[in-house]
Amino acid sequence: MSLSVFLMLLMLVSTFTSLVTEAVKKCFQERGKTYYANTLAGYISAGLSIAVGAAYIILTGAAINAQMAVYLTALVFMSWLAAMVGYDKVIQAISQFKTGKEKEKNE
């Protein structure tokens, strides 16, 4: 898995997290059940990222190795973080890390 594929999966999970969260919130409201919006979004994002990661592994036939485990763990964490603070903030932080890494290589 490359960084571009990781970012695409993160964007996919973040998009679907907001859609699924809104649908679940409407179901809870119709039934009169109470919920915590951030907790709900966090659980949904973690579940979706696990499902998307499993689908990626199955569809591409990728081997589960240490690098893939790091990518999948990061996908779960970053999708949870994006659900809490917003996708644009997470992408901004990733681009700052990437820019800093490129500067170190050039020095």
Helix proportion range = over 70%
Topology pattern, helix = H, strand = E: HHHH
Q: What Rg do the Cα atoms give?
A: 16 Å
Q: What is the overall silhouette?
A: globular
Unreliable spans = none
- Structural class by SSE content: mainly alpha
Count of β-strands: 0
Strand content: under 5%
Helix run count: 4
How many domains is the backbone divided into? 1
How many angstroms does the end-to-end distance come to? 27 Å
Mean pLDDT value: 84
The biggest sheet amounts to: none
Question: How would you describe this structure to a colleague?
Answer:
The protein contains four helices and no strands. The chain starts with a helix and ends with a helix. With 107 residues, the protein is mainly α. Helix 1 packs across helix 2, helix 2 packs antiparallel against helix 3 and helix 3 crosses helix 4. The chain has one domain. The relative contact order is 0.15. The chain is 87% helix and 0% strand.
Annotate the secondary structure layout.
Elements: H1 3-31, H2 37-60, H3 66-85, H4 87-106
Helix pairs in contact: 1-2, 1-3, 2-3, 3-4
